[in-house]
Design goal:
Glucose Permease (Domain IIA), about 280 residues, 5 helices, alpha+beta, two-stranded parallel sheet, about 25% helix, nine-stranded antiparallel sheet, 2 domains, about 20% strand
């Protein structure tokens, strides 16, 4: 309980520091103050957000139970041919931070055929979501579970798959979304209660696509909605993770393994099908 409270506190402190930095930047146009003052809240934001998991990770490591390290076996959240990116098979935390329970998160993009995704480059500045085969792909329940969160009210934005758009994404959009908290970062999302204190999160779902609601019981392989490009996302893709709490500000990541697939490494192509979601006896 104590480590959970510290994780939530660190998220709040992170947003306060970032807001303080932006406020000082604006104030600098009207008030004369020492230049280095503005870097204090920014430095604190970086330290809290990316400092090896922050106070929460250290407190959790000192706890009696410790963080969960045994992977939970579930089915894949998609069907078809996909490529892994930002995989925990290559490094932990996979996304460079443990915030929002992302320590063991993975991103996957659809590639039904080799080179069927638009390439990253200088032009065009942004692409329509329909240009990406992942957009609209079904999101599937990884196990029999109860829906605890189902939110698909945010818009799908254009891709950020050019160098100019990527700079904008990190320098402006990412910071603004961070101030909005977890919901603005993960975009439209679904959280499933798998039981035994384990929850599955699907992030960046398509606007208006969810077919379930909180309280619904779902079965392994059931369609939950569609892959989209909402929240902190550069292109339509599925962000999937397991965690130990519903509250993203307080959650810690839980390792996963997909039945029949394992944990694909970065750039690894894998094919998911219905059989890998059938629970083993």
């Amino acid at each position: 309980m104590k480590s959970t409270s510290l994780r939530k506190l660190s998220q709040i402190a992170s947003r306060v520091c970032l807001l303080g930095f932006l406020a000082m930047v604006v104030a600098g146009f009207f008030v004369d103050y020492p230049y280095w003052w503005g870097w204090v809240p920014l430095g604190l934001w970086v330290l809290i957000s990316f400092g090896g998991g922050g106070w929460a990770a250290r407190a959790e490591a000192r706890g009696k139970a410790g963080p969960r390290t045994e992977p939970v076996e579930v089915g894949a959240p998609v069907d078809g041919r996909w490529k892994a990116m930002n995989s925990p098979a290559d490094k932990v935390p996979s996304h460079g931070t443990r915030t929002y329970g992302q320590a063991y998160a993975i991103d996957i993009v659809a590639e039904p055929e080799p080179d069927s995704r638009p390439a990253f480059g200088w032009w065009p500045l942004a692409r329509r979501n329909d240009d990406f085969p992942a957009f609209g792909a079904p999101l599937l329940a990884v196990a029999d579970a109860t829906v605890v969160v189902a939110d698909d009210r945010q818009r799908d934005h254009l891709s950020r798959t050019s160098w100019f758009a990527l700079v904008y994404f990190f320098a402006v959009e990412g910071l603004v979304r961070s101030l909005g908290g977890a919901r603005r970062v993960v975009g439209n999302h679904v959280t499933l209660d798998l039981g035994d204190g384990t929850y599955a999160l699907y992030a960046h779902a398509r606007h208006g696509s969810l077919t379930i609601a909180p309280g619904d019981r779902v079965t392994a392989g059931q369609t939950l909605g569609q892959c989209g490009n909402s929240g902190n996302s550069t292109e339509p893709h599925v962000h999937f993770q397991l965690m130990d709490a519903v509250d993203l500000d307080a959650a810690a990541g839980v390792p996963f393994t997909w039945r029949g697939i394992g944990v694909p490494r970065n750039e690894e192509i894998f094919v998911a099908g219905g059989a890998d979601r059938t629970p083993t006896s």
